[in-house]
Amino acid sequence: LGLLVAMRSNYLAPDLLTFNATISGCEKGKQWQQAIAILAMMETHNPMPDVITYSAVISACEKCEQWQQALDILVAMRKHDTPPNAVTYNAAISACEKGEQWLLALAVLSAMRTNSVAP
Fold this sequence. Notes:
mainly alpha
């Protein structure tokens, strides 16, 4: 995260790969709040997040048992015209499972099938 701040303060524009790598680091460090903050920054500035970005943020939420946040991010993807893929859906389903939200997990699985994404 410090790298992103340093890049911006030195007038360097981080690219999508830099943001995605930072979010993946947040996921591995169980820093779901930081991952969401970076996503929010991306949604209002360039570069725009892609399916990898959203999947990594959902996975960070899943690792920390933040199923509500994970589902909020899944909904936000649609608002930003980024269709979820199998990785995205599976991370959201896993987040629901960790939160013992079985009906929501089934609803995400149903959405996955409705959108013709193979599990």
